[in-house]
Amino acid sequence: MAETRLSYKARRRWSLVILLIGLPAYIVAAVSLVAWLPELPGWVEFFVYVILGFAWMVPLKFVFLGIGQADPDAPHPEDDPR
Fold first, then answer.
1. Number of helices and strands (H, E) in the chain?
2. For the chain, first and last CA: distance in Å?
3. Fewest CB within a 10 Å sphere: which of 9, 19, 69, 82?
């Protein structure tokens, strides 16, 4: 199976789209899901929110890895052969 890796710039763009559009949509969906459930005790509802709060990160972890670091594909100034 061929592995498709996103470039650093593509991961930065996708992380921005996910954070600005996907995460608010996920929050609305999570709150709607909890509201749709039958009345739960407060502590159970808290744990449902905690689980849902971490659940979005698991499938998207690869997009956010290394985003805060310098571009690994960019040329380094000390590599200049002058």
1. 4, 0
2. 42
3. 82
**DSSP 8-state class, residue 7:** P
pTM to 2 decimal places: 0.71
CB 44 within 8 A of CB 52: no
Residue range 6-54, pLDDT digits in tens: 888 888 899 999 999 999 999 999 999 999 989 889 999 999 999 999 9
Decide: 49 and 34 in contact? Cβ < 8 Å.
yes
Contact status, residue 69 vs residue 15, Cβ threshold 8 Å: no
Q: Under 8 Å CB-to-CB from 69, ≥6 apart: which residues?
A: none
Query: Do the beta carbons of residue 45 and residue 51 sit within 8 Å?
Result: no
Q: Per-residue confidence at 81, pLDDT binned at 50, 70, 90?
A: low
